[in-house]
From TrEMBL:
Family from the record: Belongs to the PrpD family.
Gene Ontology terms for molecular function: lyase activity
Residue intervals of the MmgE/PrpD C-terminal domain: 287-457
SUPFAM superfamilies, per database record: 2-methylcitrate dehydratase PrpD
Official protein name in the record: 2-methylcitrate dehydratase PrpD
MmgE/PrpD N-terminal domain residues: 15-257
């Protein structure tokens, strides 16, 4: 017999929907509002950088060929689309270079889901009552907060171990929460929107090996929340109590492959709502690589600092061993095949090791077509061995050991990568924004966007200003 839905008194879905209805600028701490603005800025920087990359161009050409024009800005293209398509495409741009944020416990690239959805919905509502900067930011916070909570209810990083692209699964609820809040939906319709969004969730982690679709997975989540919220506003009923049901319920179904018991944790959805802000655990990434490779890179950076002469003689290296937690091993501990695609290069530890060892840095230009498959990189890739060690499970910690021709061995352990612990400060996020967008847009446009985003609560028309500043064409820095 299938379990009936929970009552409204015990339903975590209903509790979440009611909290979202009541969420207001006054209930969000200033620290959280400020951090949200820097998350938005970081996401927009990634979108501007990613808008004209080769795979983004292919996505743009395919989507604009089947979609009509609309009110919603296509970042960097001087074009507009209907809201669903704009959210999908702009999210794809944010994810285009794997430089966007990640939540450290419930892996999701939050800005890539939330920012395009809120921007598209806000533009769709114009002309109409002007959406205040306060309301725009509150919608962002709603999405940034809900998506990781759903992820934690599903076991967080364990979803990667199962084989789901975790953020694409957690994301639809976050997008629906954000857009529903922007549209001012009541709790009943927010609940509908959550149910409508979650039933669209998708994202297979096998996308990391060679396909371009990995860049688009969070876009599916962003689009799902937009569609769900507009359906709900029109009175289209969604799945009620989507996080509570057993038969066919969201948490129940997407954790079927879990090796843990219990498989899911419904209480995490609403645990300490409004008191503990999970947005604090969203981290901006310093390297254009999957977050799971960052600790490896930092281990190598530390070895290069401690042993500069030895590491400079990298052609004498005979073996590099990288040890990590199980989730990291499943996600990034695989060996790429030659020739590597950009997606594969950014998603595996051996390639990250080769870049840091050979070039001594990780920067966007290394992924240009002429540099992607250099022979010296493959010489190092072939010497990398990755393995899972139980002592690092449920942590970011990694160990790297380097062996040289003469038998000398050097090694180090890093407990968490830069960007995770310590997190990038707001000032460092601003520096990253300026670095990422340098050469992509003019310095004047750069400064105008950061002024609008960081002062959005004082902006008279934040939606109109952002649309005008984000729309003009950008430069592909990988050409």
């Amino acid at each position: 017999m299938h379990t009936a839905p929970a009552t409204s008194n015990t339903s975590v879905t209903r509790t979440l929907a009611s909290w979202l209805e009541e969420l207001s600028p006054a209930t969000i701490p200033e620290e959280i509002r400020t951090r949200a603005k820097y998350l938005v800025l970081d996401g927009l920087g990634c979108a501007l950088l990613g808008a004209r990359l080769p795979w983004s161009v292919k996505a743009h050409d395919a989507i604009t060929a089947i979609e009509g024009t609309g009110k919603c800005t296509v970042i960097g293209w001087n074009e507009s689309l209907p809201p669903n398509a704009a959210a999908l495409l702009n999210s794809t741009f944010v994810q285009a270079f794997d430089l966007d944020d990640v939540h450290v416990e419930a892996p999701i690239h939050a800005a890539s889901v939330i920012v395009p959805a809120v921007l598209a919905a806000a533009q769709q509502e114009q002309p109409g009552p002007v959406i205040s900067g306060h309301d725009f930011l509150t919608a962002m916070v709603a999405g940034f907060e809900v998506a990781p909570r759903v992820g934690l209810a599903m076991g967080g990083t364990h979803m990667l171990t199962i084989g789901w692209h975790s953020g694409a699964i957690f994301g639809p609820a976050g997008s629906a929460a954000a857009v529903s809040k922007l549209l001012g939906l009541p709790a009943d319709q927010i609940e509908d929107a959550l149910g409508l969004a979650c039933t669209q969730a998708c994202g297979l982690m096998s996308a990391q090996f060679e396909s371009m679709v990995k860049r688009m997975h969070h876009g599916f989540a962003s689009r799902s929340g937009v569609l769900a919220s507009y359906l709900a506003r029109q009175g289209f009923t969604g799945i009620k109590e989507i996080f509570d049901r057993s038969y066919g319920g969201f948490l129940q179904m997407f954790t079927l492959g879990s090796e843990s018991e219990p498989r899911y944790f419904p209480d995490e959805v609403c645990k300490e709502l409004g008191e503990t802000w999970h947005m604090k655990k969203i981290r901006e990434k310093p390297y254009a690589l999957c977050a799971g490779t960052h600790c490896t890179v930092d281990c190598l950076r530390e070895l290069q600092r401690l042993y500069p002469e030895q590491m400079a003689e990298w052609r004498r290296i005979v073996k590099i061993e990288a040890e990590m937690a199980r989730a990291a091993m499943k996600k990034v501990g695989w060996a790429p095949q030659k020739p590597a695609t950009v997606t594969a290069a950014q998603m595996c530890i051996p390639y990250a090791v080769a870049l840091q060892v050979v070039d001594g840095e990780i920067v966007p230009g290394q992924f240009a077509p002429g540099k992607l498959n250099r022979e010296e990189l493959w010489d190092i890739i072939d010497k990398v061995e990755c393995r899972e060690v139980p002592e690092f499970d449920h942590s970011w910690a990694q160990r790297v050991k380097v062996t040289f021709e003469d038998g000398e061995v050097i090694e180090t352990v890093v407990k968490a990568p830069r960007g995770v612990n310590p997190a990038l400060s707001n000032e460092e996020v601003l520096e990253k924004w300026r670095s990422v967008t340098r050469g992509v847009i003019s310095e004047e446009r750069q400064r105008e966007i950061e002024a609008v985003v960081l002062n959005m609560e004082e902006e008279a028309d934040v939606v109109g200003r952002l649309g005008a500043l984000l729309g003009p064409e950008t430069v592909n820095v990988l050409q």
